[in-house]
Amino acid sequence: MTMVIKIKMLYRALQRCMSSSAKAPFEITDMAAFMFTLQKSNSGSLNQVLQSILDSKLNLTHIESRPASLIDADKGFTFIVDVETPTSSSLENVCQKIKKVCGDVTLLGSLEVPWFPRRFNDIDGMQQLVRPLHSDHPGVNDPVYWARRQELGNIIRSCTLSSKIPIIQYTNEESQTWQTIYHALSPLYKKIACEEFLLNFKEMENKGLITENEVPQIANVNKYLMGKTGFQLKPISGMEKDRDFLNCLAFRVFPTTIHMRHHSQPYFSIDPDVAHEVIGHAPILADPEFAEFVQEIGLASLGATEEDIEKLMNLYFYSIEIGLIMNPAGDRRVYGARILSSVDEIHHALSIHPELRHFDPFQACNVKYHRKDLQSMYWFCEDFREAKILMERYASTLQRPFNATYDRAQKSIKVSHKVKSW
Ligand SMILES: [Fe+2]
């Protein structure tokens, strides 16, 4: 039997299964999912599996497949099937039937994954860690600077996603640092920043959200950003855990600092500050395609293993923090926020010194990033559409027993399979 005929038969069986069970008279009370693997030599058995679901009167809502092994094609395909099921006995019944065909079946509802936020407000409960300054931070021996950071942290510690962000009264010293940064960076952008950034940066200037004299206010920038892409800056008093930070991105929430970098080092900041957040991140987060790319990384992080979180952080850093765009003519432009908020890193990233690589998530995920110094390697993409497609492809290979999507209207995460989390 040819492969085309086999596929047509399977398709008809799937249609029968989905259309028939959709009219099932029982009340849908729960969902479940199971996973099984069909060897390449046994691929025709999918028809039998679908028939057993039909016979058990389970409402099949989704089916997906992925290679059982990226190395050995003979391992066949692993299938994940979602059903809405009225009783545990019908689920048990169908699992028994699938076992006879495939040898084994895993009920995904029984698998546990690390906790992740399901609803928007869950984010407010995430822990914020206030860490002491690193030994090579320029403010490490400046008690006045540290006290000011703690003071600002206390002001926004109780800020939730739904509460009003306070207008911060920045000191003269902080305003002077901002002016130094602004005057050094803004003339450079025309030559080095990507066009999506330039468009929004200009608009933010025209609206008075970024001015030369005053430190920008997160409260005002937030309104602009939310109107553009729905991204929301969430002031935090300390660094969140990598997992929590990435999880926020799934909801289009971007954790944000509000303190200013130390006045002695305005051209490079070892850790994120308000200048980095507003001048580096905000304009590019206002671009719809970039916003989708960022959210894609966040969605991939929900319930991910510790190993995958580490890899996703590498991908986050190499793109959102230090990413470049390169057109076919070799014109290099910057979209990474860390470069855009650092005079030193702009000159370094666009010099002949660093190594440049085409963004490949499967490679970049394994290269451990470091925050402390200027980078020796940068990854570039052609545009954000390409970056998003590559990220989607990477995310689809994560060994996670469910897919997650964001319901923008409900501000909640929908999972394709029932999972428990700890
Ligand atoms: Fe950043």
From TrEMBL:
- Name one process (GO BP) from the record: aromatic amino acid metabolic process
Q: Which GO molecular function, any one, fits this protein according to its record?
A: iron ion binding
Keyword Cytoplasm attached: no
Origin superkingdom: Eukaryota
Parts forming coiled coils: none
- Cite the binding residues for Fe cation: H276, H281, E321
Q: Does the keyword Magnesium apply?
A: no
Q: Ranges for the ACT domain?
A: 34-113
Looking at the record, the residues that make up the Biopterin-dependent aromatic amino acid hydroxylase family profile domain are 101-422
* Family matches, as CDD domains: ACT_AAAH-PDT-like
Could you list this entry's UniProt keywords, alphabetically sorted: Iron, Metal-binding, Monooxygenase, Oxidoreductase
Q: What is any one of the record's Gene Ontology cellular component terms?
A: cytoplasm
The record's similarity note reads:
Belongs to the biopterin-dependent aromatic amino acid hydroxylase family.
What is the name attached to this protein's record?
Uncharacterized protein
Query: Species name for this entry?
Result: Blepharisma stoltei
